[in-house]
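Summary of Year 1 activities. Much of the first year was spent building the evaluation harness for sequence design. The harness presents a backbone, in tokenized form, and records the residue chosen at every position. We chose the following record to illustrate the format because it has been used consistently in internal testing since the harness was completed.
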């Protein structure tokens, strides 16, 4: 008779991952400092600052139009136009610091280890 030399199919074992849910993984990354919070906060600061300057600029423009003076209206228009741009530039400068750090991390990982004995001899 014929005997089969084929092995029966055994499905692969599934790995059990305790933090498979994105919110749990995100929180563990947060606790281990693998993800940064400041870039997310900077986006919130940008939108809050933009909303502030738009509301304040519109308020001052309307107050200037109702008889409080031409100077107040011009200041309101300047706040309305330049305020969001200034907030954006400030937020981009802060984000630039983080992008520079991200760009330098692979460079630091590829550099050879620093030997203190060589530095002292020189």
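For this record, the design step produced the sequence shown next.
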């Amino acid at each position: 008779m014929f005997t089969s030399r084929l092995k029966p199919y055994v499905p692969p074992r599934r790995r059990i991952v305790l933090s498979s849910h994105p919110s749990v993984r995100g929180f563990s990354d947060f606790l281990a400092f693998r993800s940064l919070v400041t870039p997310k906060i900077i986006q919130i600061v940008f939108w809050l600052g933009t909303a502030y300057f738009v509301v304040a600029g519109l308020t001052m423009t309307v107050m200037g139009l109702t008889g409080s003076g031409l100077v107040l209206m011009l200041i309101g228009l300047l706040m309305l136009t330049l305020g969001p741009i200034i907030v954006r530039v400030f937020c981009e400068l802060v984000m630039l610091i983080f992008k520079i750090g991200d760009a330098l991390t692979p460079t630091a990982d590829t550099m050879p280890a620093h030997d203190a004995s060589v530095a002292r001899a020189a």
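The mean pLDDT is 79. Quantitative recovery figures across the full test set are reported in Table 2.
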